[in-house]
Design goal:
Structural class: alpha/beta
CATH topology: TIM Barrel
CATH superfamily: Metal-dependent hydrolases
Oligomer: single chain
Largest sheet: 8 strands, parallel
Strand content: 15-25%
Distance between the termini: 15 Å
CATH class: Alpha Beta
Strand order of the largest sheet: 2-6-7-8-9-10-11-12
Helix content: 25-40%
Radius of gyration: 20 Å
Number of domains: 1
Number of strands: 13
């Protein structure tokens, strides 16, 4: 049943901040000693995640006070209690949505995005099941405004991913999320055919969030050095990974074989897409007769038909909108991250969308996401 959007934006990209004991209190006992956990130290609070340096909570929402005052300070030395409650409390989240003129929001993980990079398939599956169950509880507080994206354990037996997709759909989540990359198993491999078929039948949008598929950003850095190098790695995580994923899916013929699949490129911006599609179309024109698999249409046709993309602060991308499908571009606030637009979304939208027609603005900040996720606009 469709809900009606009467006012406010539909943010196509928001996040939670997971509870400190989420995994340690819920995961099956055999994994409890390895589960992501919270640790308070004299110098600050951290999430302890297998295979990573301690992860400061300041990177996941406790810097929001600085963002509001306009004085972003260091990310270390923060406490989980500094986190804006809307990251984990659905009622506080609804209040923040009202404050920022948000009518509905697609919800992605916080540190849960890192779970995609866990090398142990069974452990990853167990962590994702815990997260998905909690997210469904979070979204159940206001299912017409909190639209969750469940995580799929891609990289293990394909049956696990199919089973979890079916489970999160039954739990009322509005989307499924797969990693941008899977080590040694690109998405054009035949192993994934049962998954694509099942996802097409299920009908939920398939989200691909930046920075997923390996432990992103921090795998090679200590706490003291990672921020200095983050500028380079963010470009790789936020754009480069999605460039690869888009090319793999289209060149691999996945959208051609499964024309009802709908993919969403999340938080990678849109300014790079037109250039990549033009390059791919140019290559297809010269070489498609002998490339395998053979695409019957230029790559841009599949993108315009089956791909959506989100952005938060991308004036250059908006200026290329006529080269894309403007009905598939979706604004997102990226709450509660400091690189997002909360609590100044209206001001940021007014600035970025200057000179864009009211009709196109409404599509990108309301209609497109509402249509994709089964909401109705008044």
């Amino acid at each position: 049943m469709e809900q009606t959007i009467t006012s406010g934006y539909v943010s196509a990209d928001g996040h939670v901040v997971e509870l400190p004991d989420l995994w340690t209190s819920r995961i099956e006992k055999r994994f409890r000693d390895r589960a992501p956990r919270f640790e308070s130290r004299p110098e600050g609070d951290y999430f302890i995640i297998e295979g990573m340096p301690p992860f400061p909570t300041g990177l996941e929402g406790s810097m929001m006070k600085d963002k509001i005052t306009g004085e972003i300070k260091q990310f270390e030395g923060r406490r989980y209690t500094d986190t804006r409650p809307g990251g984990w409390d659905p009622q506080a989240r609804l209040a923040d949505q009202d404050l920022d003129h948000i009518r509905a929001e697609i919800i992605y993980p916080g540190i849960g995005l890192i779970v995609f990079g866990f090398p142990d398939p069974e452990f990853k599956r167990a962590c994702m099941r815990v997260y998905n169950e909690w997210l469904s509880e979070f979204c159940a507080a206001a299912p017409e405004r909190l639209l969750g994206a469940g995580l799929l354990p891609v990289g293990g037996p394909v049956e696990w991913a199919i089973e979890e997709a079916q489970r999160v759909a039954q739990q009322g989540l509005r989307s499924v999320s797969i990693p941008a990359t899977v080590p040694d198993r690109p998405y054009f491999f035949p192993d994934y055919e049962p998954l694509w078929a099942a996802l097409q039948e299920l009908g939920l949008p398939v989200a691909i969030h930046v920075g997923t598929g390996k432990i992103p950003l921090f795998e090679q850095f200590t706490r003291t050095s990672m921020m200095a190098a983050m500028g380079v790695d963010v470009v790789e995580a936020k754009i480069g990974m999605l460039m690869r994923t888009l090319a793999e899916l289209i060149w691999g013929g996945v959208p051609q074989r499964y024309p009802q699949l709908r993919f969403v490129l999340v938080e990678g911006g849109i300014g790079w897409i037109a250039a990549q599609l033009r390059f791919m179309d140019h290559w297809w024109t010269d070489h498609h007769r002998w490339m395998a698999p053979q695409l019957t249409e230029p790559p841009s046709v599949y993108f315009h038909r089956q791909f959506w993309a989100t952005f938060e602060d991308d004036r250059p991308g908006l200026l290329t909108r006529e080269l894309l499908n403007v009905e598939h571009l979706m604004w997102g606030s990226d709450y509660p991250h400091t690189e997002g637009t909360f609590p100044y979304s209206r001001e940021q939208i007014a600035k970025d969308f200057a000179g864009v027609s009211d009709g196109e603005v409404h599509k990108m900040v309301v209609e497109n996401a509402a249509r994709l996720y089964g909401l109705a606009t008044a």
